[in-house]
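Record type: monomer structure entry
Structure origin: computed from sequence
Chain ID: A
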Amino acid sequence: MGTPPPPLDAADRLPLRERKKLRTREALVDTALTLFTERGFHRVTLDELCDAVDTSKRTFFRHFTSKEDVAMAPLQDLWRAFLADLETREPTGGPLMELLQEALLTALDAAPATDWPQRVRRSRRLAAQNPSMDAHGLRFCQDTSRAAVDVLHRRFGLPATDAIRPRLAVDLLVAAFHCALDSWSSLPGDPTRGNLATHLRDACAALPEALTLTTAPAS
């Protein structure tokens, strides 16, 4: 699934070669989102995108698998950082949902505070207009969920025979994030990364009551 780019402070400490690769990747994401927004996703060829960044298609494919992949990089990087956090997070013995929530909040806190929120909003607007991006996002979400469950079984002592509850926990986190993202995206002005974290906490806090919510009796 690839690895997320390092946070900005960590990127400054990378070797020169790695810093150049990171700058190229960031330029591809920014340029792709700008061109796709201005001219339409399907009207911009991969050759045109690479020419705009003054790089080759070979270099593009070192970073991304497709136009859909580069256009959805902002949120995909967040979930890759979430998986990376799970790989190093120490077990606490507490509720699994709390662990998953903290891992995602940590990944969100590491996202660039300045340009990342604007990238996410542009990416989401493009996805809403282009079914191929929506399908790509669904596949990525499924792959991420499976990878997260694998980490949970491998690192946190969950029984190998318990395939349902860990997957449901991950799916609930993903659903809470999507609810938070929808409400965050509708905020006026330029919502921040911190605003999204607040909406995520609120959505996660609502999960227990959502599971016990009752319907009104028939009249």
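Annotation 1: The longest helix spans residues 131-155.
Annotation 2: Residues 125 and 146 are 26 Å apart (CA to CA).
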